Amino acid sequence: MAIHLSRDEARRIAVRAQGLSAEPPGDMLAVIRRLNFLQIDPTAAIAPNADLILWSRLGPSYDPAQLSAAHEVTHDVFEYRATLRPTADLDLYRAAMDAAPKYATTREWLVANERFKRDVLERITAEGPLQSKQIPDTSQVPWPSTGWSNNRNVTQMLEILTATGDLAIVGRVGRQRVWDLASRSYPPRTITYTLDEATVILNEHRLKALGIVSAKAPDSSVETGRVGAAGEEATIDGVAGTWRVDPTAIDQPFSGRTALLSPFDRLVHDRNRLAGLWGYEYVLEMYKPEASRRWGFFALPILHDDRLVGKVDARADRKAGELVVRAIHQDEGFTAAVRDGVQAELESLALWLGMKLVLP
Predict the structure, then answer these.
(1) pLDDT for the residue 152
(2) Which sequence spans correspond to the domains of the chain?
(3) 71: closest CA among 89, 87, 56?
């Protein structure tokens, strides 16, 4: 029989799973392991997404240099599909690398460009880590796309060879990625998983990170939303459909706090889950004309205890050294506790950025 949960219980499971309750989340690596991955996004209206997500869990003690070191020096995390993931899970992802490329058109392009592939690998072998601009295009057949990747042959080859596990992204110079041979960058494989075996384990990791997931959860650009048969089937009071819940997360104590979230935070990435569990409406509006925005270019969702209660429209003015808050939108009337919590989080964010807080 399915486990039956109230909305309050379901929300608290989700918040606690994401390390956003008052429970101490541990150090940076513990947070990354808990979250399963950090999405990399170049938008830095306030701070890069991965850093903003870690700040929201760890506060101003978090130093972005820690994350760079974990990737480029100690190799505790690795970059895969526009995310940073725990290197301890690398063997699980190697199962997908062994099966790549997934699509026939990509496989055909790789076969047609065998000499180009060899050129890229030989150059990186001889010269060490390189950026894409440092690698000449010796392709025999251009990448067949009419979109942004049209004829970006070097980048496409590097992406494909990373997906197959031949290359690894070992760091960045500004926003530009740096590639090296995976054999020089990744630790030796310790366990060989089949794709089915790895999928089962990763589904369990994904569910543990989210706490509760709709059986029809959508995919994002970096991760599938589905968790297969992981966990237990659940239903939620007043919410349609069936869900999968982490059984170890049920009936756990909960103490909430106030947090400002990145628009790419996994607590808010599934808009259907947002509507069902929280009754919360959110759209990332940086792609809209300014006149059409309701909440702001990069509005931060406000979490208070187990409720999503509003949005903060803020931008970091690095030239002026100011964190400028243009508006604080209340989805429901703020209590004194919410107002105090939001004020404290804004002060914490400004402190972490090393900026003066400018309120509306």
Answers:
(1) 87
(2) 258-358
(3) 87
